[in-house]
Amino acid sequence: MASSVAANCVATSRSRLLRPAATLWQPYRAEKSTALLTRRSTVSLAVSLVGQKHVADFFQQKNELASCIPAITNTRREALRRYAIVAEAQKAEYIWLDGQEGLKGFRFNEIRTKTRCLQKALPVGSSEFPDWSFDGSSTGQMDQGNNSDCILKPVFSCPDPIRGGNSVLVLCEVLSPEGTPHRTNQRRLLADLLTDEIQAQDSWFGFEQEYTLFARDGHPYGWPPAGYPAPQGPFYCGVGLEAVYGRQFVEAHFDACVKAGLKISGINAEVMPGQWEFQIGPTGPLEMGDHVMVARYLLHRLGEDFGVIATFDPKPIQGDWNGAGAHTNFSTKAMREEGGMVEIMKAIEKLSKTHKEHIAEYGHGNEKRLTGKHETASMDTFRAGVADRGASIRIPLPVSLANKGYLEDRRPAANVNPYVVARMLIQSTLLN
C-alpha cells in the first residue's frame, strides 16, 4: 500500500505537491501548510517541511535536492512516511550588466539575471555552461525590437549560496548579435589589455565597495522618521544599537559571499549611519572585477528578502554627510618587493598625468562626492600623500614604513565599474 501511495506522490504535478489535497494534509497543522506558500530559501523550506532536527538529513547528499513528501496510509494511526524525490537538474542564475549603473536613480542598479535549468548538472568553474541570450531592447542595450537578441557568454561561476544545493551563479559577458563584445562589455576591454607582458607585472587589486542602505520607501535605513541621526562620528566601525544600522543584513551578505567562494576580505560600518563597506581582494584584475560583480548581485538579491535597497550612489544624502566611494588598492610585483616605494612613486607620477581621464571614467555623479570635503580630494586637483585620506592617491602608513607595498586610489565612486578601474590603472602605470 505504501509503495502505491509513493508512486502516486511522485506522479503528482508540482502545483499538487505544493498544495496537496486536503485528505493528504489532515495530520498537518495549518501553519505547516501555509509556510510552503511563502518565498523562502532552500534551508527554510526544509525546516518547514520536515522540522529542524531533520534538516541535516535533508541535505546529506551533495548535489542533490531532496523534497520530502508525506504519504498517508489508510488509517491515521499509522506512522507518517516520507518519500524523497531526487532532482538531478541544476539551477543556474545567469548574471549580466546592462551598463547603466548610476543612470537610473538610487533605487535601481545595472544587474540583470534570469535562471536556466540545466538537466545535467555542471561543476562550478566548468567551461561548458552554455551561451544564452536575452532581449536587449528591454534592457536598453539594443535599439531595435525586431533584432534585439544579445548573447550571454559565461565567464565565471560559483556556488549559489541562496538557493544552495548544486545551484550556481554564472556571470556573463554581453555580446552583440554578431558575436562581438557589446558596447557595455567593459570586462572584455580589460581582458584584451592583459597581454603576456602586462601579466608578467603580476598586478594585484583590492576593491573597497561602499554602499548605503535605504528602506523600501526611500528613507535612509535606520534613520529617524523625521529629522536626522546624530552627527557623524560615532558610526564608523561602531558597535551598538544607536551606532549601527542594518548589521543583520550586512552579516547575511558577508556569509553569502564566503559561501560563494568569493575573495571577500572584510566588512565594516562606514562614517555615515546606514553606510557600509565590503572589500574584495587582493587578487588579479579580472578576478577582482568578477568577484565584485557577484558580490553586488548578492547584495541586491538579499535586499529583496530583507526589504532594503543597497545603493552605490556616490552622494546619496546631501549635506554634511560622507559620500560613498570604491577606494582601489593597486600594486605590482615590483612595488611589493624590497625598496618598492620607488616604483610606487613612479606610478603616482604617471597617474598625475592622466587624472582627467580617470575622473571621466570613475563613476556617474562623482562630482557631488569629490569636493575636497568629507575625506576626498577635489576632482579638479591631483595630490598624493602618506596616510592622507584627503588625497587623490593615499600611501598607507604601513606601506611607507615598510618602504614597499601598494597605493590606494581614492577617486573612484561607489558606482564605478570595477573592470574600468583596473583597466585605467594598468593603462596609466604599465603602458604609458
Automatic annotation (TrEMBL):
Domain GS catalytic: 182-432
SMART domains reported in the protein's UniProt record: Gln-synt_C (SM01230)
UniProt keyword ATP-binding present: yes
Highest taxon in the source lineage: Eukaryota
Stretches assigned to the GS beta-grasp domain: 90-179
InterPro entries named in the record: Gln_synt_N, Gln_synt_N_sf, Gln_synth/guanido_kin_cat_dom, Gln_synth_cat_dom, Gln_synth_gly_rich_site, Gln_synth_N_conserv_site, Glutamine_Synthetase
Keywords: ATP-binding, Ligase, Nucleotide-binding
Reaction(s) catalysed (UniProt annotation): L-glutamate + NH4(+) + ATP = L-glutamine + ADP + phosphate + H(+)
EC class of the enzyme, as a word: ligase
E.C. number: 6.3.1.2
GO MF annotation list: ATP binding; glutamine synthetase activity
Pfam families noted in UniProt: Gln-synt_C, Gln-synt_N
Family to which the UniProt record says this protein belongs: Belongs to the glutamine synthetase family.
Protein name per its UniProtKB record: Glutamine synthetase
The organism of origin for this protein: Riccia fluitans
